[in-house]
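Example record for the data management plan.
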Amino acid sequence: NSATRIIKTSWTLLTGKATSCKTKEKELTHEVDNLKRTLVKQLNLTTAERKRIESSLSDERQLVLDLVEFRAALQEITRITSLKTIERDNKAREYLKAEMRSIKQEKI
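Corresponding structural encoding:
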């Protein structure tokens, strides 16, 4: 129980920090994308080259979004794994306590 409370409290604190970091990351990513587009417009490129660069920028943006989703999924899996480990340890402890009680009762 106490371990679960500690994990929940830690998770809440980390989630708050992560949210502000994610917001800042989105702002910076948007700014970088705008700067890339501005640079592409300033360069004297053919239409085909410009389209290719825009396509690459779009692909890169999608990969970044996928990466964010995968990181979130990994964090959730890690959190669930930790909780399962704690639950398993607690069950093992409870089992040992019950076994010790039954051994004591047999001796009496």
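Summary line stored alongside the record: The radius of gyration is 26 Å.
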